[in-house]
Design a protein that fits this description.
single chain; mainly alpha; 1 helix
């Protein structure tokens, strides 16, 4: 290859590496966001379960008071 072609190949290789690094960084951020969302979903599930228990307790107490 000629010198200008070598320079172009080197520049394109550098750009490719930058793009790959960018995608890897995005993948890490996505994984971190996914982990946070999983944690929030678990907390939400726990809060819903707790709310259902409280609602059942309230209904039982109301039924007892009504009798």
């Amino acid at each position: 290859m000629s010198e200008p072609e070598d320079e172009i190949v080197a520049e394109l290789t550098e750009i490719l590496h930058d793009i790959q690094a960018g995608f890897m960084a995005l993948e890490r951020r996505f994984d971190a966001s996914e982990a946070r969302l999983d944690g929030l979903a678990q907390k939400l599930d726990a809060a819903i379960a707790d709310a259902k228990k409280r609602q059942d307790t309230f209904r039982k107490a109301r039924a007892i008071d009504a009798t």
